[in-house]
Amino acid sequence: MLTTKDYLRSILAIIVFFVMLIIATPLILFLLIITLGRASNFVVESIAPVIVKPVFWVSGISFNIELHADSITAPAVFIINHTSTLDVLTILALGLPKIRYVAKWEFQYNPIFFLLGRLTGQIFIQRKKSEEAIARLQNTYERIQKKQLSVIMAPEGSRSHPGVIGPFKKGPFHMAMDLDYSIVPIYFEGNRELSKGNSMLTQAGKLTAHIHEQIDVSDWTEGNLEKHIIQVRQRYLKLHS
Protein backbone atom coordinates (compact mmCIF):
# COMPACT_ATOMS: atom_id res chain seq x y z
CA MET A 1 0.00 0.00 0.00
CA LEU A 2 1.25 3.46 -0.88
CA THR A 3 2.16 5.73 2.01
CA THR A 4 2.10 9.52 2.17
CA LYS A 5 5.86 9.43 1.65
CA ASP A 6 5.38 7.34 -1.51
CA TYR A 7 2.89 9.86 -2.90
CA LEU A 8 5.23 12.77 -2.24
CA ARG A 9 8.20 10.90 -3.74
CA SER A 10 6.18 9.97 -6.82
CA ILE A 11 5.05 13.54 -7.46
CA LEU A 12 8.61 14.81 -7.02
CA ALA A 13 9.94 12.05 -9.30
CA ILE A 14 7.52 13.04 -12.08
CA ILE A 15 8.65 16.65 -11.77
CA VAL A 16 12.31 15.61 -11.81
CA PHE A 17 11.79 13.48 -14.91
CA PHE A 18 10.31 16.33 -16.93
CA VAL A 19 12.88 18.81 -15.62
CA MET A 20 15.65 16.43 -16.72
CA LEU A 21 14.01 16.13 -20.14
CA ILE A 22 13.75 19.90 -20.49
CA ILE A 23 17.41 20.32 -19.49
CA ALA A 24 18.65 17.51 -21.73
CA THR A 25 16.60 18.33 -24.82
CA PRO A 26 18.69 21.35 -26.00
CA LEU A 27 21.90 19.32 -25.53
CA ILE A 28 20.48 16.37 -27.43
CA LEU A 29 19.24 18.59 -30.25
CA PHE A 30 22.65 20.27 -30.48
CA LEU A 31 24.43 16.91 -30.66
CA LEU A 32 22.04 15.59 -33.30
CA ILE A 33 22.38 18.72 -35.43
CA ILE A 34 26.18 18.96 -35.38
CA THR A 35 26.57 15.22 -36.03
CA LEU A 36 23.79 15.11 -38.66
CA GLY A 37 21.93 12.56 -36.57
CA ARG A 38 24.89 10.27 -35.96
CA ALA A 39 24.73 10.92 -32.21
CA SER A 40 21.42 9.03 -31.93
CA ASN A 41 23.12 5.93 -30.54
CA PHE A 42 25.00 8.00 -27.96
CA VAL A 43 21.70 9.56 -26.87
CA VAL A 44 19.91 6.25 -26.28
CA GLU A 45 22.93 4.44 -24.84
CA SER A 46 24.39 7.15 -22.59
CA ILE A 47 22.14 10.17 -22.12
CA ALA A 48 18.83 8.33 -21.56
CA PRO A 49 20.17 6.38 -18.53
CA VAL A 50 21.54 9.62 -17.04
CA ILE A 51 18.11 11.25 -17.33
CA VAL A 52 16.43 8.36 -15.51
CA LYS A 53 18.98 7.91 -12.71
CA PRO A 54 17.87 10.89 -10.55
CA VAL A 55 14.22 9.90 -11.06
CA PHE A 56 14.90 6.49 -9.54
CA TRP A 57 16.90 8.10 -6.73
CA VAL A 58 14.08 10.48 -5.81
CA SER A 59 11.60 7.57 -5.96
CA GLY A 60 13.73 5.53 -3.57
CA ILE A 61 14.21 2.88 -6.24
CA SER A 62 17.35 0.80 -6.62
CA PHE A 63 17.82 -0.32 -10.23
CA ASN A 64 20.12 -3.20 -11.21
CA ILE A 65 20.90 -5.13 -14.36
CA GLU A 66 21.67 -8.85 -14.14
CA LEU A 67 23.14 -10.47 -17.24
CA HIS A 68 22.36 -14.18 -17.49
CA ALA A 69 24.56 -14.66 -20.55
CA ASP A 70 28.22 -14.27 -21.49
CA SER A 71 27.43 -11.00 -23.27
CA ILE A 72 24.53 -8.98 -24.64
CA THR A 73 23.64 -10.14 -28.13
CA ALA A 74 23.33 -7.29 -30.63
CA PRO A 75 21.77 -6.54 -32.99
CA ALA A 76 18.70 -8.34 -31.73
CA VAL A 77 15.01 -8.03 -31.02
CA PHE A 78 14.79 -7.50 -27.26
CA ILE A 79 11.45 -8.36 -25.66
CA ILE A 80 10.16 -7.35 -22.23
CA ASN A 81 7.27 -8.11 -19.89
CA HIS A 82 5.05 -5.02 -19.75
CA THR A 83 3.01 -4.56 -16.58
CA SER A 84 3.80 -1.10 -15.20
CA THR A 85 4.38 2.54 -16.10
CA LEU A 86 7.83 2.02 -14.57
CA ASP A 87 8.69 -0.08 -17.63
CA VAL A 88 9.28 3.10 -19.65
CA LEU A 89 11.93 4.32 -17.20
CA THR A 90 13.46 0.86 -16.90
CA ILE A 91 13.81 0.57 -20.69
CA LEU A 92 15.55 3.95 -20.86
CA ALA A 93 17.84 2.99 -17.97
CA LEU A 94 19.09 -0.14 -19.76
CA GLY A 95 21.28 1.79 -22.22
CA LEU A 96 21.32 -1.12 -24.66
CA PRO A 97 23.69 -0.80 -27.65
CA LYS A 98 22.23 0.87 -30.77
CA ILE A 99 18.71 0.33 -29.49
CA ARG A 100 15.48 1.74 -30.91
CA TYR A 101 12.20 1.64 -29.04
CA VAL A 102 8.92 0.46 -30.52
CA ALA A 103 6.43 2.66 -28.69
CA LYS A 104 2.74 3.41 -28.87
CA TRP A 105 1.67 6.25 -31.15
CA GLU A 106 0.18 8.25 -28.27
CA PHE A 107 3.64 9.02 -26.83
CA GLN A 108 3.98 11.57 -29.62
CA TYR A 109 1.23 13.69 -28.10
CA ASN A 110 3.93 14.95 -25.72
CA PRO A 111 5.93 17.46 -27.81
CA ILE A 112 9.24 16.56 -26.15
CA PHE A 113 8.76 12.83 -26.77
CA PHE A 114 7.67 13.59 -30.32
CA LEU A 115 10.72 15.73 -31.05
CA LEU A 116 13.31 13.48 -29.42
CA GLY A 117 11.67 10.29 -30.66
CA ARG A 118 11.54 11.42 -34.26
CA LEU A 119 15.07 12.83 -34.29
CA THR A 120 16.60 9.71 -32.75
CA GLY A 121 14.71 7.33 -35.03
CA GLN A 122 12.34 5.68 -32.57
CA ILE A 123 9.42 3.67 -34.00
CA PHE A 124 5.86 4.71 -33.15
CA ILE A 125 2.98 2.39 -34.01
CA GLN A 126 -0.79 2.44 -33.64
CA ARG A 127 -1.40 -0.78 -31.75
CA LYS A 128 -5.18 -0.73 -32.26
CA LYS A 129 -4.63 -0.79 -36.02
CA SER A 130 -2.68 -4.02 -36.34
CA GLU A 131 -2.28 -3.95 -40.14
CA GLU A 132 -0.93 -0.41 -40.08
CA ALA A 133 1.38 -1.29 -37.19
CA ILE A 134 2.81 -4.26 -39.10
CA ALA A 135 3.30 -2.13 -42.21
CA ARG A 136 5.02 0.55 -40.13
CA LEU A 137 7.42 -2.01 -38.68
CA GLN A 138 8.17 -3.51 -42.08
CA ASN A 139 8.97 -0.07 -43.48
CA THR A 140 11.77 0.25 -40.91
CA TYR A 141 13.52 -3.00 -41.86
CA GLU A 142 15.92 -1.48 -44.38
CA ARG A 143 17.06 1.23 -41.97
CA ILE A 144 17.41 -1.22 -39.08
CA GLN A 145 19.49 -3.69 -41.08
CA LYS A 146 21.63 -1.04 -42.77
CA LYS A 147 22.58 0.56 -39.44
CA GLN A 148 22.70 -2.75 -37.53
CA LEU A 149 20.20 -1.44 -34.99
CA SER A 150 18.47 -3.43 -32.28
CA VAL A 151 14.82 -2.95 -31.32
CA ILE A 152 12.98 -3.47 -28.05
CA MET A 153 9.31 -4.41 -27.90
CA ALA A 154 6.66 -5.69 -25.50
CA PRO A 155 4.98 -8.83 -26.91
CA GLU A 156 2.00 -8.19 -24.65
CA GLY A 157 1.48 -4.89 -26.46
CA SER A 158 -0.31 -3.21 -23.56
CA ARG A 159 -0.36 -3.17 -19.78
CA SER A 160 -4.14 -3.54 -19.86
CA HIS A 161 -4.45 -7.29 -19.65
CA PRO A 162 -5.58 -9.75 -16.99
CA GLY A 163 -3.05 -11.84 -15.15
CA VAL A 164 0.67 -11.50 -14.65
CA ILE A 165 1.89 -12.07 -18.22
CA GLY A 166 -0.61 -11.26 -20.94
CA PRO A 167 -0.99 -13.06 -24.28
CA PHE A 168 1.93 -12.53 -26.66
CA LYS A 169 1.34 -10.91 -30.04
CA LYS A 170 3.27 -12.19 -33.06
CA GLY A 171 4.78 -8.84 -34.11
CA PRO A 172 8.15 -9.02 -32.31
CA PHE A 173 8.69 -12.62 -33.36
CA HIS A 174 7.81 -11.95 -36.99
CA MET A 175 10.23 -9.03 -36.90
CA ALA A 176 13.05 -11.23 -35.58
CA MET A 177 12.39 -13.77 -38.34
CA ASP A 178 12.21 -11.12 -41.06
CA LEU A 179 15.42 -9.41 -39.91
CA ASP A 180 17.18 -12.71 -39.16
CA TYR A 181 17.84 -11.45 -35.63
CA SER A 182 17.93 -13.44 -32.42
CA ILE A 183 15.38 -12.72 -29.71
CA VAL A 184 16.76 -11.64 -26.34
CA PRO A 185 14.27 -11.94 -23.44
CA ILE A 186 14.47 -9.31 -20.70
CA TYR A 187 12.46 -9.86 -17.54
CA PHE A 188 11.65 -6.85 -15.35
CA GLU A 189 11.45 -7.94 -11.72
CA GLY A 190 9.72 -5.63 -9.26
CA ASN A 191 8.10 -3.18 -11.69
CA ARG A 192 4.59 -4.56 -11.21
CA GLU A 193 4.96 -4.76 -7.44
CA LEU A 194 6.15 -1.16 -7.03
CA SER A 195 3.74 0.49 -9.48
CA LYS A 196 0.54 -1.26 -10.46
CA GLY A 197 -1.35 -0.81 -13.71
CA ASN A 198 -1.65 2.64 -15.25
CA SER A 199 -0.65 4.57 -12.15
CA MET A 200 2.37 6.88 -12.18
CA LEU A 201 2.63 6.47 -8.43
CA THR A 202 5.28 4.11 -7.10
CA GLN A 203 6.66 2.69 -3.93
CA ALA A 204 10.32 2.66 -3.00
CA GLY A 205 12.06 -0.63 -3.60
CA LYS A 206 14.26 -2.66 -5.91
CA LEU A 207 13.95 -3.17 -9.66
CA THR A 208 16.04 -5.68 -11.56
CA ALA A 209 16.31 -6.14 -15.32
CA HIS A 210 17.28 -9.74 -16.07
CA ILE A 211 18.84 -10.03 -19.53
CA HIS A 212 18.79 -13.65 -20.69
CA GLU A 213 20.49 -15.74 -23.36
CA GLN A 214 19.54 -15.12 -26.96
CA ILE A 215 16.94 -17.31 -28.67
CA ASP A 216 17.90 -18.40 -32.17
CA VAL A 217 15.00 -18.14 -34.63
CA SER A 218 16.77 -19.47 -37.71
CA ASP A 219 14.60 -22.60 -37.80
CA TRP A 220 11.33 -20.81 -37.01
CA THR A 221 8.63 -20.90 -39.68
CA GLU A 222 5.04 -19.79 -40.00
CA GLY A 223 4.10 -23.38 -39.28
CA ASN A 224 5.87 -23.62 -35.91
CA LEU A 225 5.75 -19.94 -34.88
CA GLU A 226 2.78 -20.30 -32.56
CA LYS A 227 4.49 -23.15 -30.70
CA HIS A 228 7.66 -21.12 -30.18
CA ILE A 229 5.74 -18.07 -28.96
CA ILE A 230 3.97 -20.23 -26.37
CA GLN A 231 7.34 -21.59 -25.23
CA VAL A 232 8.80 -18.09 -24.84
CA ARG A 233 5.75 -16.93 -22.87
CA GLN A 234 6.06 -19.99 -20.63
CA ARG A 235 9.61 -18.90 -19.82
CA TYR A 236 8.29 -15.54 -18.64
CA LEU A 237 5.60 -17.19 -16.54
CA LYS A 238 8.25 -19.41 -14.97
CA LEU A 239 10.46 -16.38 -14.24
CA HIS A 240 7.59 -14.71 -12.42
CA SER A 241 6.67 -17.75 -10.32
Automatic annotation (TrEMBL):
Against CDD domains, the record matches this protein to: LPLAT_AGPAT-like (cd07989)
> Does the keyword Transcription feature in the UniProt annotation?
no
Source organism of this protein record: Fodinibius salicampi
Does the keyword Ligase belong to this entry?
no
What this protein is called in its record is: 1-acyl-sn-glycerol-3-phosphate acyltransferase
Q: Which residues cross the membrane?
A: 12-36
Ranges for the Phospholipid/glycerol acyltransferase domain? 76-191
| Metabolic or biological pathway | Lipid metabolism
